[in-house]
């Protein structure tokens, strides 16, 4: 198991990519090797031990899941959502289909940055517990 984590996002406005960057920075601060990319730029999941994806309701996110479906079923995955609850039904179905965790919502126009940082630290702890190859401070 690798300690590399992909934080993939799709964003029509800046908030989701900002949340993804915050999550990536926090995970890196916990000792994980992190790559933050838009879902369109994430060509392969080879070498990643976990995937965290933002705004799974977007069309690009659905393409990402279809393209990497086999890998995603074997890779721990968490979802986050920029908007306020409730989470769209297609995202709920995606969570069940892939066995992903989440999604966690980070408010609407003004995301809760502290909550995003705390969630990232929680994820780092979860990865440490679930996968011996992950290292956290």
What does this structure look like?
This protein is of the alpha/beta class and 137 residues long. The chain has helices at 14-29, 59-67, 69-73, 89-98, 113-130, and strands at residues 4-9, 33-38, 50-54, 77-81, 101-105. It is globular and about 35 Å long. It is 42% helix and 20% strand. Strand 1 (4-9), helix 1 and strand 2 (33-38) form a beta-alpha-beta unit. Helix 1 packs across helix 5 (113-130). The model has no long low-confidence stretch (mean pLDDT 84).
Topology:
Elements: E1 4-9, H1 14-29, E2 33-38, E3 50-54, H2 59-67, H3 69-73, E4 77-81, H4 89-98, E5 101-105, H5 113-130
Parallel strand pairs: 1-2, 1-3, 3-4, 4-5
Helix pairs in contact: 1-5
Indicate the percent of residues in helices. 40-55%
Average predicted local confidence, pLDDT: 84
What is the element string, with H for helices and E for strands?
Answer: EHEEHHEHEH
Q: Would you tell me the structural class of the helices and strands?
A: alpha/beta
Instruction: Give the count of helical stretches.
Output: 5
Instruction: Report the principal-axis shape.
Output: globular
Q: Which residues sit in consecutive blocks of at least 5 with pLDDT less than 50?
A: none
What's the gyration radius in Å? 13 Å
Quick structural summary:
Helices cover 42% and strands 20% of the residues.
């Amino acid at each position: 198991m690798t300690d590399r984590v992909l934080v993939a996002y799709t964003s029509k406005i800046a908030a989701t990519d900002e949340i993804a960057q915050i999550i990536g920075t926090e995970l890196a601060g916990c000792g994980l090797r992190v790559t933050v990319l838009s879902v369109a730029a994430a060509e392969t999941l080879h070498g990643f031990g976990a995937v965290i994806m933002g705004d799974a309701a977007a069309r690009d996110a659905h393409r990402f899941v279809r393209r990497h479906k086999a890998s995603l079923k074997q890779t721990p995955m968490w979802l986050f959502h920029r908007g306020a609850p409730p989470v769209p039904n297609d995202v709920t179905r995606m969570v069940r289909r892939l066995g992903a965790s989440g999604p966690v919502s980070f408010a609407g126009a003004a995301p809760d940055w502290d909550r995003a940082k705390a969630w990232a630290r929680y994820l780092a702890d979860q990865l440490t517990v679930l996968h011996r190859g992950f290292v956290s401070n």
